[in-house]
Amino acid sequence: MTQNYDAIIVGGGLIGLSTAYGLVRRGHSCLVLDASDTDFRAARGNFGLVWVQGKGTGFSAYADWTMRSSELWPELRDELQEQNGQSLGLEQEGGLHICLSQAEFDSRKESLDLLRSHQNGRFSYEMLDRKALLDMQPDLGPDVVGGSWCPHDGHVNPLYLLRSLHDCLLKKGGSVIVDAKVSAITYQQSLFDVTSTQGRFYAPRLILAAGLGNRTLAPMVGLEQPVRPQKGHILVTQKTDKLIKLPMTQLRQTAEGSIMIGDSKEEVGFDISSSADVTAQIASRAQRTLPALKNQHIIRSWAALRVMSPDGNPIYDQSASHPGAYAITCHSGVTLAAAHCFDLASDIEAGCLGIGLQPFSERRFHVPA
Predict the structure, then answer these.
(1) What is the dotted CATH code of the domain comprising 228-308?
(2) Residue 50 contacts residue 334 (beta carbons within 8 Å)
(3) Cα(263)–Cα(97) distance, rounded to whole angstroms?
(4) Other C-beta atoms within 10 Å of 140: how many?
(5) How far is 92 from 139, CA to CA, in rounded Å?
(6) What are the residue boundaries of the structural domains of the chain, listed by start?
(7) pLDDT tens track for 134-151
(8) Under a CB-based contact definition with an 8 Å cutoff, are residues 15 and 209 in contact?
């Protein structure tokens, strides 16, 4: 099978699909090559937060990019829902970060003060003592001393988002081929020749959004993506009455009523097995936050791998040796979906990453201290 497209996107997760959809809505023919379901997929472990607070502390470009995407999210929701008729469950009424000690509270305030200092008044938040926090979220446990609230935060159903991007991409004439593992990429006469298990495909633009696979694929187009896996666990309870008013960093209640619990971080390579010790720690913190959870049954639990760069921030690069090739890595596929659809796709159409994305280049890891 051989065919020409305007752009080939390698990777059918949230980053690949949001970028591909952004291109097809601009009239470009796009092919998404998605690998096997047995591959490591960051989208499987996405918590579903559209989150601003804490993103980009000490790295103002990331803070700006995150804020930009949060502001664009209602537009993305409206467009996808109008085309697909499927609610994404987006709620953007603010989000909470819970602190279980004074030390956590002080550290959180210091971090968010730094974030606000380089946002020129764009980012806002409040540190809430226990009494003020109880007004927003009743029935907190006695260990909760306070927390932070950010009006820019929210959450969405990540599976509905993934499906809507996929379906809307197809409705606009895009193509998705599964079980299409890419083994080789060559470049000649301004055209990329991509060899996969489903055939060879050609396009003048190539976007690598293959998560951990970018580490192997990026050098084929003169780029580097020094990414590593970081394991995170998620627990899901039975459906229950409304217990959580606003999403939290580690707890959120879905529109269907189940409660998601997560936010663990383990540096254990490519191991996605569940760890009883880690899940117990997650559950313990959740119960300390909201004691009513002790009466809820855990019905599902799994682990997935985040895609992490050396400093934990995204990488956006375009190739000098292979014009038209881009590589994208981030672990905020839900939060950044709107920016990828509207702004990143526009940059790729124009043939150059915008000035706001230039600080994200992998070259930052080679700057002398």
Answers:
(1) 3.30.9.10
(2) yes
(3) 12
(4) 21
(5) 22
(6) 2-52+159-226+311-363, 95-151, 228-308
(7) 999 999 999 999 999 999
(8) yes
